[in-house]
Design a protein that fits this description.
The complex is a heterodimer.
Chain A: H1 2-9, H2 26-35, E1 41-51, E2 57-68, E3 74-82, E4 90-94, E5 102-107, E6 112-118, E7 143-153, E8 156-165, E9 175-181, E10 187-193, E11 199-211, E12 214-224, E13 230-240, H3 251-256
Antiparallel strand pairs in A: 1-2, 1-13, 2-3, 3-4, 4-5, 5-6, 7-8, 8-9, 9-10, 10-11, 11-12, 12-13
Chain B: H1 2-7, H2 9-26, H3 45-57, E1 62-69, H4 77-91, E2 96-100, E3 106-110, E4 114-119, H5 129-141, E5 156-163, H6 169-186, E6 191-196, H7 198-232, H8 235-258, H9 269-295, H10 302-332, H11 340-370, H12 386-401, H13 403-422, H14 439-450, E7 455-462, H15 472-488, E8 492-497, H16 498-508, H17 534-546, H18 555-566, H19 588-601, E9 618-625, H20 633-647, E10 653-657, H21 659-693, H22 696-720, H23 731-754, H24 760-787, H25 795-826, H26 829-832, H27 837-845, H28 847-850
Antiparallel strand pairs in B: 1-5, 1-6, 2-5, 3-4, 7-9, 7-10, 8-9
Helix pairs in contact in B: 2-8, 2-11, 4-6, 6-7, 7-8, 7-9, 7-24, 8-9, 8-11, 9-10, 9-11, 9-24, 10-11, 10-21, 10-23, 10-27, 12-13, 12-24, 13-22, 17-18, 21-22, 21-23, 22-23, 22-25, 23-24, 23-25, 23-27, 24-25
Classes of the chains: A mainly beta, B alpha+beta.
């Protein structure tokens, strides 16, 4: 769960080493993407614009801290800033090895921390077009990859890789098609097809900037082709590898909202 | 003029044939549409509101499927795996927006530490007994699941199929058949399937219309051919009037195709009506022509024959025109209806009658001219008619002898009819278009009996700015409204409201903690973990019972009270957080924020119920109705408005919209339109006849028999519980259009007879035995044509057939009895004045002779 946040919400789909990718298979390309080192900590302010099919835009602003522990497991804390009715609502996600993430939420109006046990992975994340599973990374062995073609997308030479789950029933997409930029080694676009084989959503990443050595998309758009709704994710501010104390990612901190 | 036209009969034949062939090629373009959304004017407020509702909250029309285990609970391993398969397969069908069933729905519940969100049926479902009990328990834990995912006897569950917004009827048809195919594939001996819901109904109405058109048109043609054979026993007499109706029907349907006018359920009647009515004009021409041929002795030369044809047109043209014009006025009056199929019916039957007249007056004479041959006079006297003659004589004699009885009888009939009319039910219920033993009716009945109904509308509460719908005041109002309506109207099966989700979340967030591991300062007292003594248990039961609203409560009610008393799984908090004290808040603003924060936990999955995932400015309640009709809708919406007037907080507004309301509007439009059209047709006929006879009295007399006919029609409908629906509502106008001809014929003949003698009894007797016979014959043939509709697969058309047949009998008899009675009683001037045109009318009315 929190790894997905790292990937999608921030420095999404990691930067690749500057090696020659030309002789690689589809799986090799994806492996390079996956294996890439990600920042140890991330601190970002993010604006979420939820656009309805009628074009009405709803804006949410949240602040997020993510920290990777020595085992490579992520912990994330999200603090909602806007709208004011949910200001101070905090969300803690602790990634576990081999079992579901721990999720806790603090509701300021109730002044209570509640544990959330959610198993529905294909549900919307906070009313966005992202589902929980869109935001988490899949194990590379769960899919087979094929390079469909090479083409220029958004000014980048790209590999177009098709990814098909090995067990169709296990995933709520029948396939995804991924555009990987050869130069910056980042994913630029993902097309997601529903279980009926119809295009459901398109994820695009734009405005890449290199921050603290990491390529970072400043604007990420998830468009639901079937419903006409979309979610635009904009980085207002982002910093990597700053010191974030481990104590921030605890239920105690969640409740008090401060360290001491 | 006539000379010029008939100089070149071939030109007429070629032109008419050409037009007919042209229109024939248009016929395949004819479409059938029975979506009642297209039945009412686009600017009708209920339709506008419903379209807006659909745009905001998605297509509200659902296909309802019930899966029933023949034995035991549907919550079994087999049952659940079947529902899961069906859900998956139906979800994959094109244009299905989404499928809701117990196998893909979420379950939210509170835990001592927080809340659990997950599928209602776990991902690792194996079907063991423990899991099955758990599912039963979950289904019973929330009002929304009951009679939605589970029937009261646990035997059945519902699969709700939502369709994409704005799909065509053809696409709906494909969906319906695809679902049927899926159900057939997975059907087995242990389960029953039922499929209903408005889209299914509309698809099936169109399918039946299609079948009716293909079977009933040939059928009515055969009936008309048979009648023509009986009356003429001559090839020409059979073929020529038949050609008239076939040609005029093709023209009419062709014009409809060109103007993209779709055939609806009542569109089926257009060809039937044109065949039954249109043949009359051809009959008049042909019978007069044969009459003249018979009168002519010896060999008829070509020139002589031409004179006979010309004479026929000259003599018969005017009276046939009068009959056609009044019929056009009757049918055309339906164009005043705001119900689109009725309007189209009026316009195109009027065009069709006009076409039948035009073809009869040009094409038939042209054919007669071209076809000129020698005819042998046929002087055979038919003895079959003597029965009618005797009957008519007897009736006439009776009226002559006992006028007081006749008047009394008249008023008794009027009295009964008025009494019956007062019990007339006006309701256009689409499911009742089908016969009782059909699959769709059985499915609809099952769904209404075991679940919350197939008919619904929505209440949308709107605020002015984002977040207005998190105000506990307005949520409390919505909750109260829901309770009030359910209590007041037993036909409401269920009300699903935005507030149900807020209450569920509030409950889930207030489950008492077992140990204080996370939250030390919780406002909810931890429940005692000590074992309960028998005394405690009795005390608990008594405390719970003390909160009951009445002495007698049901087990589920007692369980609910105990849950509340113990705050079992947060049951004491299944409410809108309203009291600042109970929730330890300083102001209402905090309660508003709490509700926003609850909404955050729903992750935007409430888009069917609200416009915004966090700060809604509108929210929806859905009222599900167990009743199939629209009869109570006005009461319910009225009550909602009254309740809102007194309870809806300032700054909020409330709107009702949805299918049940559109259908209710449609019923009202049908009834109002039918009454208006009927009055227009009566007035039009009155004006036409007043001008024709240059006498107000003539106009007035003419509409009395037909007025009585309509009154009797309404009386019969009331007595036999035949509802006024989209088809039967048109009987009035149709009956005026056709029935007035009998009065016209009778008046003309009477006038002719009157010029021969001053003995009114003799006049009426003679009129009855000549034209009277013809009128009865004419009415019988039209009635027989319409009687074909009795074989329609759609109930409204069946009743329309019966009612038109009835009105034909009544209007012809009324003309034959009431008119002579009135003429004898009042001796009006218009009948005594004789003018040259008379003789022209009279001849064609002597159809009694022609038919021999």
């Amino acid at each position: 769960m929190n790894k997905k946040l790292t990937i999608t919400l921030t420095a999404l789909f990691i930067l690749l080493l500057s090696q020659n990718l030309s002789a690689l298979s589809g799986r090799d390309i994806m492996e390079k993407v996956k294996e890439e080192s990600s920042p140890k900590t991330t601190h970002a302010a993010i604006q979420l614009d939820i656009v309805g099919k009628n074009g009405v835009k709803k804006t949410r602003i949240l602040e997020m801290w993510t920290r990777k522990n020595s085992k490579g497991l992520n912990r994330s804390l999200i603090n909602f800033i806007k709208p004011s009715s949910i200001k101070g609502t905090r969300f803690l996600i602790v990634e576990n090895k081999g079992r579901p993430d721990d999720q806790h939420i603090y509701l300021p109006a109730l002044k209570r921390v509640r544990r959330i046990a959610a198993s529905a992975r294909n549900k919307s994340f906070m009313g966005t077009e992202f589902t929980y599973s869109d935001m988490s990374s899949r194990n590379i062995d769960e899919d087979t990859y094929t390079i469909l073609r090479e083409e220029t997308y958004n000014g980048h030479d790209c590999y177009v890789v098709e990814s098909i789950p090995k067990h169709p029933g296990s995933y709520h997409y029948s396939k995804t098609i991924i555009w990987v930029a050869k130069d910056i080694r980042m994913i630029l676009k993902v097309e997601m097809y529903d279980t009926n084989g119809k295009l459901k959503k398109v994820l695009t990443m734009n405005n890449f900037k290199k921050i603290n050595g990491y390529w970072t998309p400043y604007k990420t758009v998830m468009k639901n082709i079937q419903s006409g709704r979309s979610t635009i994710l904009t980085n207002l501010k982002i910093e990597y590898d700053k010191n974030i104390p481990a104590d921030m990612f605890t239920v105690q901190f969640l409740k008090r909202g401060k360290m001491n | 003029m006539i000379d010029r036209i008939f100089k070149h009969p071939w030109i007429i034949i070629v032109v008419v044939t050409g037009i007919t062939v042209f229109f024939m090629f248009q016929l395949p373009r004819l479409k059938i549409d029975n979506n009642y959304f297209n039945f009412i004017p686009k600017n009708q407020p209920s339709l506008v509101a419903t379209k807006k509702l659909q745009k905001q909250f998605g297509n509200q029309e659902i296909m309802d499927i019930a899966v029933q285990a023949k034995e035991g609970s549907i919550i079994s391993k087999k049952g659940i795996l079947l529902v899961k398969k069906l859900t998956d397969k139906i979800s994959a069908i094109n244009n299905v927006a989404n499928v809701i069933s117990l196998t893909n729905s979420d379950f939210i519940t509170g835990t001592p530490e927080g809340m659990e969100v997950g599928p209602l049926i776990g991902e690792n479902f194996t079907g063991d007994t423990r899991q099955l009990y758990k599912i039963h328990e979950r289904l019973l834990s929330w009002e929304l699941y009951k009679r939605n995912f589970i029937s009261d006897d646990f035997s059945a569950t519902q699969v709700i199929v939502k369709l994409k917004n704005g799909i065509t009827q053809d696409e709906e048809k494909v969906i319906y058949h695809s679902i049927k195919k899926v159900l057939n594939n997975y059907g087995n001996e242990e389960f029953n399937f039922y499929i209903a819901g408005m889209p299914s109904i509309i698809v099936l109405v169109s399918q039946n219309v299609n079948r009716d058109i293909r079977t009933l048109i040939p059928f009515v043609l055969i009936v008309v051919l048979l009648i023509l054979f009986l009356s003429f026993k001559k090839a020409g007499g059979i073929i020529l009037p038949t050609l008239t109706v076939v040609i005029s029907t093709i023209w009419t349907l062709g014009i409809m195709a060109i103007f993209n006018v779709e055939l609806s359920i009542i569109g089926t009647i257009i060809p039937v009506l044109l065949v039954a009515v249109g043949s009359a004009y051809g009959i008049h021409i042909v019978s007069y022509y044969y009459d003249e041929m018979r009168k002519t002795e010896g060999i008829i030369t070509a020139a002589g024959h031409r004179e006979i044809v010309k004479g026929t047109v000259k003599q018969i043209g005017m009276p046939v025109l009068l009959a056609a014009v009044t019929t056009i006025a009757g049918f055309g009056s339906l164009a005043a209806s705001r119900v689109i199929p009725m309007k189209n019916f009026g316009i195109f039957t009027a065009i069709g009658v006009g076409a039948a007249f035009l073809v009869a007056i040009t094409f038939i004479p042209a054919l007669l001219l071209v076809r000129h041959s020698i005819h042998k006079p046929n002087h055979k006297n038919s003895a079959k008619m003597t029965f009618f003659e005797k009957l008519l004589s007897a009736v006439h004699g009776f009226i002559q002898i006992r006028p007081d009885w006749f008047i009394m009888g008249f008023f008794i009939v009027v009295g009964f009819s008025i009494y019956g009319s007062m019990h007339l039910v006006k309701d256009n219920v689409m499911i009742d278009y089908f016969k009782k033993n059909t699959e769709i009716v059985r499915a609809d009945t099952f769904l209404r009996k075991n679940f919350s109904g197939t008919n619904s509308f929505s209440i949308v509460v709107k605020g002015k700015k984002p977040g207005d719908l998190t105000n506990p005041e307005v949520l409390k109002f919505m909750d109260n409204l829901s309770l009030h309506l359910k209590k007041k109207f037993p036909q409401i099966g269920k009300i699903i409201s935005f507030t149900d989700f807020i209450k569920l979340m509030n409950k889930s967030m207030h489950v008492p903690a077992l140990k204080d591991n996370i939250d030390s300062d919780t406002s909810v007292k931890p429940a005692s973990r000590n074992a309960m003594s028998p005394q405690d248990f009795a005390a608990l039961l008594n405390r719970a019972y003390a909160h009951a609203g009445s002495i007698n409560i049901t087990t589920p009610e007692l369980i609910a009270l105990i849950n509340k008393e113990l705050n079992y799984k947060g049951a004491a908090y299944y409410e809108i957080p309203y009291s600042t004290a109970k929730y330890s808040m300083t102001d209402k603003e905090q309660l508003k924020n709490l509700i926003s924060q609850y909404l955050l936990l729903f992750s935007g999955n409430l888009s069917d119920w609200t416009d915004d995932a966090l700060e809604p400015s509108m929210a929806r309640m859905q009222v599900l109705l167990l009743s199939k009709g629209t009869a109570n809708i006005t009461d319910i919406t009225g009550e909602i408005k009254r309740f809102a007037k007194s309870g809806l907080p300032k700054g909020y507004s409330l709107e009702t919209a949805g299918f049940a309301i559109v259908q209710n509007d449609l019923t009202n439009l049908i009834v109002n339109g039918a009454i208006r059209s009927f009055l227009i047709s009566l007035i039009a006929v009155f004006i036409i006849l007043t001008f024709y006879y240059k006498s107000l009295v003539a106009g007035l007399f003419s509409i009395i028999p037909i007025g009585l006919t309509i009154l009797i029609n309404f009386g019969v409908m009331g007595f036999f519980g035949i509802r006024m629906d989209i088809a039967t509502a048109m009987v009035g106008s149709i009956a005026v259009g056709i029935g007035i001809d009998y009065t016209i014929h009778f008046l003309s003949a009477y006038k002719y007879e009157r010029s021969k003698t001053d003995n009114l009894a003799v006049v009426s007797h003679n009129t009855l035995l000549t034209t009277g016979k013809a009128i009865i014959f004419n009415a019988a043939s039209v009635g027989a044509g319409f009687a074909v509709l009795i074989f329609s697969s759609l109930v409204p058309l069946m009743y329309l057939g019966i009612l038109i047949t009835l009105t034909m009998v009544v209007s012809s008899l009324a003309s034959l009895t009431i008119i002579p009675f009135l003429l004898k009683l009042f001796k009006p001037g218009f009948i005594r004045t004789s003018f040259v045109r008379n003789s022209k009318i009279i001849k064609h009315t002597k159809r009694g002779e022609n038919n021999e």
